């Protein structure tokens, strides 16, 4: 699933880059250079700039919408740019099926979804993704950028990325069985 997403992203980037290499009848004015188009609404590409003003749906609301659409338990939520607008990509697991639901971050409308059969499935946990996000925000005040469930050394954890009010990115790691905060740190790596 992730490999096909990255392949699609790479192809889209290449097409956009090549389309910018067009010709202009007035390119002689600037020594062969073509004027760049005027900037438009902010893009949702930079990892820590994913909180554009168009986002009015919270990650928690997007999770609720996706869970209603797909049935099951949400394991990840990411704010991305799709369909020309900020969109939450929410992964919901139901048994061995994984649904990826795309929720418009401005309206809450489901933009699309896809279903994939998972051969390995993580066991159910006591702490939900929504509760893990609440716990992380009680540790670090700010806006949730991403949250996902992961398995580390046999232990299931939630990794929650938060952008603080002063634009510092934090990662909070939470035990999915008891809600304990295992780690909290500034995360400039992503």
UniProtKB/TrEMBL annotation:
Name of protein: Uncharacterized iron-regulated membrane protein
InterPro entries listed in its UniProt record: PepSY
Residues in the signal sequence: 1-19
Organism for this UniProt entry: Neisseria zoodegmatis
Domain of life of the source: Bacteria
Domain PepSY, chain residue ranges per copy: 57-113, 127-184
Gene3D superfamilies hit by this protein: 3.10.450.40
This protein's UniProt keywords: Signal
């Amino acid at each position: 699933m992730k490999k096909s997403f990255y392949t699609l992203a790479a192809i889209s980037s290449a097409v956009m880059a090549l389309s910018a290499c067009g010709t202009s009848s007035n390119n002689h004015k600037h020594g062969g250079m073509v004027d760049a188009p005027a900037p438009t609404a902010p893009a949702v590409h930079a990892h820590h700039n994913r909180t554009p003003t168009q986002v009015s749906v919270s990650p928690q609301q997007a999770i609720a919408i996706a869970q209603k659409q797909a049935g099951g338990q949400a394991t990840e939520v990411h704010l991305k740019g799709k369909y020309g607008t900020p969109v939450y990509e929410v992964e919901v697991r139901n048994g061995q099926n994984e649904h990826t639901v795309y929720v418009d971050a401005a309206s809450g409308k489901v933009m699309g979804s896809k279903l994939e059969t998972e051969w390995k499935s993580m066991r159910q946990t006591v702490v939900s993704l929504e509760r893990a996000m609440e716990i992380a925000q009680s540790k670090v005040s700010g806006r949730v950028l991403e949250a996902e469930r992961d398995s580390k050394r046999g232990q299931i954890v939630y990794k929650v990325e938060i952008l603080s009010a002063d634009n510092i990115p934090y990662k909070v790691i939470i035990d999915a069985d008891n809600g304990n905060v295992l780690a909290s740190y500034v995360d400039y790596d992503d």
